[in-house]
Amino acid sequence: GGFIVLDGETYELKGNWENECESPRYGYDFWYQPRHNVLISSSGIVPKIAGRGFNPNDLKKGVYGRHLYVWNLSCRTITQCFDLGEDSLPLIVKFLHNPDAAEGYVSCALSGVVYRFYKCEAKNWAVEEVIRIPPKEVSGWIMPTMPAFTVDLIISPDDKYLYLCNWWHGDIRQYELSRNCKPRLVGQVFVGGSILRGGPVTVCRDEELKCQPEPLVVKCRRVYGGPSRLQLSLDGKRLYVTNSFYSTWDKQFYPDLVREGSAMLQIDVDTEKGGLTVNKNFLVDFGREPNGPSLAHDIHFPCGDA
According to the UniProt entry, where is the signal peptide (predicted)? Predict the structure, then answer.
């Protein structure tokens, strides 16, 4: 759960970043804000267990992380630790882009909760729940309840919108951040997932949807898998998404994705009022790679990411 330092030119391993303190058991993501001398990191999953796929029997055994860590950036030591709940699985950490901002968000994959972390007047840090995506009661799946598996979170460069993707349910969500402590859902689009109409899973009870979403077809190609990684254009108008999370998990939950290959889609964004629409004229098909179908994951711009 600690950090390693690589030489910026040679990529030679230089050692651990943390300064003689006990490292967390495991880690996943981090973000820092130099003007507040802070780094925030999340817990993630025990790597060797993540590599074998998802097993409900691993729940309540400490396999999935539950903590958010606050580090003193200059001293490289942990100053606070927040317990976000058993099997919550905090993954993605993002500060607002404003370099003076002393707040950000962390998404918890298995609990479907997004927490806001912020600096208090006493100069310590606090967390509060600001988004909760309810699970769905289902049949024909690995468990009778399907949680919202939120595996990526990004914030627009102007700090106006937060985007969240839900790999199991299959939707991408857009939240407006004019009141940072109360994000408001203004856009939602389904680009796959495990609850599609005509699939093996039947939704028995759903607090949000009246019916199961339809499968997505773009340029005559059926899109399998669920939204996994996001990247937003710097003008905030185009949201790109891939649908492979982790190959062993892909094989377990979306075998058609592994057989046919993944895809990158473009979601058109209404930056004025909010709203998301799949662009049916854009598709990068990784099923047609020369050496066979491939699984696409991270998306990065050479000039910097959102």
Answer: none
- Residue 306, pLDDT score: 63
Arithmetic mean of pLDDT over the chain: 94
Which residues contact residue 195 at a Cβ distance below 8 angstroms, ignoring those fewer than 6 apart? 136, 138, 146, 168, 169, 170, 201, 203, 212, 213
The CA distance from 9 to 25, in Å, is 29
**CA distances to 37, 112, 130 from 119, in Å:** 11, 23, 16
Angle at 9 between CA 8 and CA 11, to 5 degrees: 70
Other beta carbons within 10 Å of 144: 13
Report, in angstroms and rounded to the nearest whole number, the Rg of the chain calculated over CA atoms: 19
pTM of the predicted protein model: 0.95
CA terminus-to-terminus distance, the chain:
25
Rounded CA separation 13/7 (Å): 7
Higher pLDDT, 22 or 281: 281
d(CA 123, CA 150): 30
Domains of the chain: 1-132 (2.130.10.10), 136-306 (no CATH)
Q: Which two tokens stand for residue 16?
A: 């651990």
- Give yes or no for a contact between 45 and 89, defined as CB atoms under 8 angstroms apart: yes
* Contacts for 72 with CB less than 8 Å, ≥ 6 apart: 37, 38, 78, 79
pLDDT-based confidence at residue 26 (cuts at 50, 70, 90)? confident
Q: What angle do CA 267, 253, 255 make, to 5 degrees?
A: 90
